Amino acid sequence: MAGYRYLIFTLLFIIASCAQVGQITGGGADTYAPKPVEENVSPASGSKNFNGSHIKIPFNEFFKLKNPSVNIVMIPPHANINASFKGKTLLLDWDDSLRENTTYAIYLNGAIQDLNESNDSIIQYFFSTGDVLDTLSYRIQVKDAWTNEPVSKATVVLYDVFTKELRSFASTGPKGYAEMRCLRNGEYAMSVFKDLNADMEYQPNEPIAFSSNERITLLKSRVDSIPYRLYTPLLEPKITTKRFIGPNSYIIAANRPLLKTAFTINDELIPEDKVIYHTNDSVQLFWNTAGVTRAEITVQNATFNDTLSLRYSEKTTNAPLLFSSKNRSNTYAPTDTICFVLNDLITSIDTSLIKIQTLTDSTYLKDYVVLLDKNTVCFLFDKKELSRLVFEFSPNAVTSTRDSIGLEEFIITLNPDRKYGVINLKLNGYKSPVILQTIKGGKLFMETPIASPPESFRLQELAPGQYTFVIIEDSNGNGKWDVGDYETRKQPEALDVFSTPTTIRANWEVVLELIPSK
């Protein structure tokens, strides 16, 4: 019998440690958490017909207790545990009576730390008050819904589906796995979440994962082969940014789309021709601020009915006009449109005061078209055989609601095709709408909604470098990745992360097949 108990103890104690960075000393840092001396634990883990109220767990080194009233838990929660220690031995006891013929687990969830490095342990101790020890187990893996990487330190809580009583819990390890043991057969409900406030209960702001089935039926030990996908729920609708930019504009951003929104400033409705959408959740409003240093901005749509207040100085409202190339590097690819942006709405352009000169032969371009859109002016012309241009805007060439620009000059470089590479993406496996995200240097470089994925999709004029990709299955066709909805059991939209970099060189074309994961 002693050998049997030793085997149970070895299987059921789970030790995890994390090293902290310490000062350099004469010896190596202690990177291991205190470990129980298994053969001296009394009563042994896995004991049956347990009728006591005391447990002694000796450790291999001196330790300290970390928040034992929170980090030491009995499940089912039929008793409040008192924790103390004497020397290297942890002493646990309780005053409450336990139920008959019940398997109990005591979790030491980071409660035991060593004295110097604060490495801690996750320990599970089991016993039964009857002559049967429940032996079923349930194992799952938790992955991040966006990156598809394993999630560590996610909390997995198992409840009795009928009584709602807590039956087991575990914390995921470095590879995202969590296993709940000593379960009896029956039906359970489960919560998987990041317990940010350590209260063992899911809160609306905490990342969560769930399966499509609300109930888990255990008739034998089970390993769930489908990972649980953890995501951060949408927060309550909120305006995230409100900022004044002199002389005449306001930036408003939110955590929800701002399309089809009515904006007013000091009770004046802002017409559409004075609203610029930088993204669907970020807008710039233009309004004449002459003599005004305070704005009440209302935001009204199906989601928002908010009023924002902004104060600013008169000096800011008198900020100078700034005219700049839309591409701040002043370098354009062959198919780019050359545009210039003003920090105010443009009211008129006098093309007779604009000169475009080629630097190769000092001639002037005559055949071009000028397009004006709110605060942006663009130039269309045949760029073949051109390499460097000088755009000269004489004073009063561009007039805004406040003033006219002074003399402005920009040297623009037009790169030839051979400066760029091409990726020919094979998308044969995707049949429904997707969103293609092209990543360069760890940052989003380009996002392309594709309603009907073709067999081949060309990404052209790519600067040399390394690129990776994400393909989002845009199931509702709204052009963005949607997180899950716990209430309706709707899972986050599926995506594939292609993290192996593809190297692009100038004047190269690479053929790359992106194969769906399922």
Secondary-structure blueprint of this entry?
Elements: H1 2-12, E1 54-58, E2 63-65, H2 68-71, E3 72-75, E4 82-86, E5 89-93, E6 103-114, E7 120-128, E8 136-144, E9 155-160, E10 166-171, E11 177-183, E12 186-193, E13 208-209, E14 216-218, E15 222-223, E16 228-230, E17 239-245, E18 249-254, E19 262-265, E20 268-269, E21 275-279, E22 282-286, E23 294-300, E24 305-311, H3 314-317, E25 323-325, E26 331-332, E27 338-342, E28 346-349, E29 354-358, E30 369-373, E31 376-380, E32 388-393, E33 398-400, E34 408-414, E35 421-426, E36 434-440, E37 443-450, E38 456-462, E39 465-473, E40 495-504, E41 509-513
Parallel strand pairs: 8-15, 8-16, 26-34, 35-41
Antiparallel strand pairs: 1-5, 2-6, 3-6, 4-5, 6-7, 8-11, 9-10, 9-12, 12-13, 12-14, 17-18, 18-22, 19-20, 19-23, 21-22, 23-24, 25-27, 27-31, 28-33, 29-32, 30-31, 32-34, 35-38, 36-37, 36-39, 39-40
